[in-house]
Structure formats: C-alpha cells, structure tokens
Design a protein that fits this description.
Layout (H helix, E strand, L loop, with lengths): L11 H17 L6 H12 L4 E3 L2 E4 L3 E4 L3 E7 L9 E8 L6 E6 L8 E6 L5 E9 L4 E12 L8
Parallel strand pairs: 1-9, 3-9
Antiparallel strand pairs: 2-4, 4-7, 5-6, 5-8, 8-9
C-alpha cells in the first residue's frame, strides 16, 4: 500500500521518517535557560516594579558537589502580622531548563516567612530569591553556586 496523502503528496513512511529525524535532532540538544530567560521570568513575576536587595536571606551552599539534590532555604525578615507579611517567595536560576524554580504563597497565619526545599542545578550558576510583601514591595537575595557534578543533563545512548 503505497497510498499518498492527497494534500501533501507524501507517503506515510516519508512522513514518519521526517518526524523521527526531527525528533532525534531535538532530543540531542538539551534544553537550558539563559540569564536573559531568567530576567524575563523575573519580569513576568515582578512586572516593572523595583526589586531591592535586603530582607531576604537565601541559604544555599556556595559550592555543591552534586547538583542533583541541593538544599535551599529562603527566609524573609517579617513579623508576619496582618499588617506586615510576606505574600509570596519566588526562586529563579539562570542555567536550568526552566528559570522559575519554585513559587511559594504565604499569608500572615504562616507564622514565619521561611521555606525549605531541595532543587536540582544543571551547572554552576546564580540563584535568586525574591519576596513580595503585602504592601507590594519586592526584596531579594542572590548567591552564585559552583556545581562540580551537574544535574538536569541527560545523555542519549
């Protein structure tokens, strides 16, 4: 059965062969974010508002042996009262496949403005944490992390 597609004039075999070629080309090239992609992701969260350094403490080791599991804690100096509290904390990086690592939403009943998690780091890079306060102000901290064994990298065999 060598029936051609009436619209494109290609056979099913030609179509599948073209699709496999495209898929193998795409699979070879690993996805990674860039500093520009991280800046765009930050702009998407903060809009045109000014982000000031301070109030936020990003606790992540500056040198990690293995990027597959890196502990991260973000704490914000806030009394967490109804009049003065953190509404969200966002974590960004510049070289992972996606620049927006995590977003946490808090309220005054959270008790304290602190979140902890583990992340993967694809390579040595800058990690940024931004906190939004209930008054709309934005505060940040950043750390350059050196990774000796990268994560987020998959090899084709």
């Amino acid at each position: 059965m060598n029936e051609r597609n009436r619209i494109t004039g290609t056979t099913r075999r030609q179509f599948l062969a073209a699709g496999v070629g495209v898929a193998s080309i795409l699979a070879v090239r690993p996805a990674s974010a860039t500093p520009e992609a991280m800046a765009a992701a930050i702009r998407q969260i903060v809009g045109g508002a000014t982000v000031r350094p301070g109030k936020v403490k990003l606790d992540i080791p500056p040198l990690v042996e293995n990027g597959n599991t890196v502990s991260l804690t973000v704490s914000v100096a806030s009394p967490m009262t109804p009049d003065n509290h953190v509404t969200s904390i966002h974590v960004f990086n510049e070289k992972n496949p996606q620049p927006n690592v995590a977003s946490f939403h808090l309220g005054p009943r959270a008790g304290r403005a602190s979140v902890s998690t583990r992340i993967r780091l694809a390579d040595s890079q800058t990690v940024i944490a931004i906190a939004r306060m209930n008054d709309g102000s934005l505060w940040s901290d950043k750390i350059d992390v050196i990774v000796t064994l990268a994560a987020c990298v998959e090899e084709l065999i």
